[in-house]
Amino acid sequence: MSMISQNQTQVKLSELIAPSFYALHWDIAEHWHTHYKLSGGRGSTKSSFVSVEVILGMMQDPKANAIAMRKVGRFLEESVFQQLIWAINALGVSGEWKIRYSPLGLTYIPFGNKIIFRGADDPQKIKSVKLANGYFKYIWFEERAEFDGDSEERTILQSLMRGGPEYFVFYSWNPPKSMNNWVNQDILQDREDTLHHHSDYRTVPPEWLGEQFFLEADALKELKPKAYEHEYLGIATGTGGQVFENVTVRTITEEEMNRFDRIRQGLDFGFAADPAAYMKLHYDRTRKRLFLFGEIYGVKLGNTKLAAKIRKYNPLNKIITADSEDPRAIDALNELGLRVVGAKKGPGSVDYGMEFLSDEINEIIIDPKRCPNAAREFTSYELDQDKNGNFKGSYPDRDNHTIDAVRYAMEDDMTMRRVRQRKKSDFGLH
């Protein structure tokens, strides 16, 4: 990989881009996606990679402008602005770019196209941005986890993605610890125009980071492994209160589903603003693996509409185990031709079911495309904390609709032998 500037300076991109980004570079070159979400740990060079791609792209398209953003504007100069200047210098094209510090700005002199910098703490300044020529082909959200959710991103993109034939939107961030955090949940969503790429320092040439970087990483790995995984590997290690540590989110193949022979179905009724949740799953009893591959999820689903949706997942009309708190809803679905039975609830049944799923099941495999809400609920379900940061001993009764549906579906598989109790000390309780 090489780039030749207008002054014929030749630079090998392999000297600027870590090996883990080679395939991503070609994906961008072919424009196979629009949204590129780059998560990673400390020293992964993800921001360096984005800065090189933006500079290269603008030097090849007179209509291409770029905007780089952080949540707080005052942090722009010492971070993303300096990062782009580094890319300009590293590519050997500093003579072709004009640098302005007040206000922050970079201009590619041969074309006159610009990179501007904005903080999302003043959204009006983003909305009011005007270009004399071209459009914002490159849009970069740096330190994405600082932003206030995907709704804020959408609002910004609605203002910026106008008037151009193609766009490249980059998002770069270090994942927060908790899977509850919106950026960690976002990457579970599946969109054809979006690519998620994760990287860490282990693929970066050691001379780029320096010996001391690796000494610090090794020391933290030895003393505090969880902190090392989060800081250097970019893993959402959790707060320590996550209930389901046995979840794997991945595509379940058609070949796998063709072998499923222990199908279970569960239904949690929705009340008022709460959604109804139907789950279809397969239980591999031998290996203690649970596959979640069918989901219905929505609010204000009347019995007739719900029954019609379920039939598509249940063409053989197998028995469905549902929440027994609403016998009238069960009767209504049975009158509509389904075979629905109420779950056998009793004292301690919730704790029993939760402990069975979290402790007795070796792996809960969730297809994120087929079961997006189950993927979100199972990965983000955590014990509450009190004001002192200690975990409470009870399971929170919220955002658990697919979880409840799975509990009901697995009722007959939960034997009466004593489920291994998770020790309170596992959560810092005494």
Order of the strands making up the biggest sheet: 5-6-7-4-8-9-3-10
Radius of gyration: 26 Å
The coarse silhouette is: elongated
Q: State the helicity in percent bands.
A: 25-40%
N-end to C-end Cα span: 58 Å
Structural class: alpha/beta
CATH topology of the largest domain: Rossmann fold
Q: In the CATH hierarchy, what is the class of the largest domain?
A: Alpha Beta
Strand tally is: 17
Q: Biggest sheet, open or closed, and with what strands and sense?
A: 8 strands, mixed
CATH-derived architecture of the largest domain: 3-Layer(aba) Sandwich
Low-confidence stretches: 4-8, 416-425
Q: Count of helical segments?
A: 15
Whole-number average pLDDT? 89
* Tally of distinct domains: 2
CATH superfamily of the largest domain: P-loop containing nucleotide triphosphate hydrolases
Amount of beta strand: 15-25%
Report what the structure shows:
This protein has helices at residues 22-30, 46-58, 77-90, 123-127, 150-160, 182-186, 206-209, 211-223, 225-231, 254-258, 303-313, 327-335, 349-360, 372-380, 401-409, and strands spanning 2-4, 10-12, 35-40, 64-70, 97-101, 104-108, 113-119, 135-142, 168-173, 194-199, 247-249, 263-268, 276-284, 289-298, 320-322, 340-342, 363-366. With 430 residues, it is α/β, with parallel strands linked by helices. The strands form 3 sheets. An 8-stranded mixed sheet has the order 5-6-7-4-8-9-3-10. The chain is elongated. It starts with a strand and ends in a 21-residue tail after the last helix. The model is unreliable at 4-8 and 416-425 (pLDDT under 50).
